[in-house]
């Protein structure tokens, strides 16, 4: 008789469809290899600003009771900078005050997807700055809309767990570079340095917990 897998649940508030579908895909990848089943409770805040996404974590958890340490580990707000300075800072402060993981991307989640395929440190000046490189990376056509569900699926089909681990590695290198600049905000490396993101921390925590 096959032993039933233990289930670990993680709560994620997402800014949009890219993040939502990514974590759905990651859940499938993890559950294929892990002795523990993961269940991502996803809350989609499509079109919401960073603070709305951060506040969505609390809404997602309204029926769940965690200790402070568990809260930090099991929850994440996945939002983008997208040059929204005030809302971005407010979202980071909100996450810190409520003990949630601020899994943000600077400039946006496109950067995280690119890091699955190569080391990348390009500075961009608009929220669409990564699009051309992302399309090349995943063999998309110039007319493809990277926010479309079918196109997102095409991207995700090209991502496996080794790619995720590669993205974590490259994200850590970006973080080291940000720290080396010596600029800080709220006790952390400057959140406005780019390219820089923190979504990797939440995913790495899950991998470590599950021994992946």
Please, could you describe this protein's structure?
By secondary structure, the protein is of the alpha/beta class. The chain has helices at residues 17-33, 50-60, 68-74, 85-98, 109-115, 131-137, 149-156, 161-180, 199-210; strands at 6-14, 36-44, 75-78, 101-102, 105-106, 184-185, 188-189, 196-197. The strands form three sheets. Strands 2-1-3-4 form a four-stranded parallel sheet, sandwiched between helices. The chain has a two-stranded antiparallel sheet with strand order 5-8. Strand 6 (184-185) and strand 7 (188-189) form a beta hairpin. Helix 5 (109-115) runs parallel beside helix 6 (131-137) and helix 8 (161-180) packs across helix 9. The mean pLDDT is 87.
Short structural summary:
The protein is α/β, with parallel strands linked by helices and 212 residues long. It has 9 helices and 8 strands. Helix 5 packs across helix 8 (161-180) and helix 8 packs across helix 9 (199-210).
């Amino acid at each position: 008789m096959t032993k039933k897998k233990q289930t670990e649940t993680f709560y994620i508030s997402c800014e949009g469809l890219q993040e939502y579908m990514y974590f759905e895909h990651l859940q499938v990848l993890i559950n294929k290899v892990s002795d523990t089943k993961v269940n991502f409770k996803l809350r989609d805040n499509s079109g919401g600003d960073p603070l709305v996404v951060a506040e969505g974590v609390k809404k997602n958890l309204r029926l769940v009771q965690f200790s402070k340490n568990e809260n930090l580990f099991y929850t994440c707000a996945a939002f983008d900078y997208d040059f929204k300075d005030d809302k971005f800072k407010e979202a980071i402060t909100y996450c810190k005050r409520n003990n949630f993981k601020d899994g943000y991307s600077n400039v946006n989640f496109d950067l995280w997807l690119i890091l699955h395929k190569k080391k990348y440190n390009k500075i961009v000046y608009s929220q669409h700055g990564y699009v051309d490189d992302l399309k090349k990376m995943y063999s998309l056509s110039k007319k493809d809309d990277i926010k479309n569900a079918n196109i997102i699926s095409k991207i995700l089909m090209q991502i496996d767990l080794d790619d995720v681990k590669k993205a974590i590695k490259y994200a850590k290198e970006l973080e080291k570079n940000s720290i080396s600049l010596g600029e800080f905000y709220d006790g952390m490396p400057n959140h406005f340095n780019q390219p820089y993101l923190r979504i990797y921390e939440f995913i790495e925590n899950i991998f470590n917990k599950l021994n992946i």
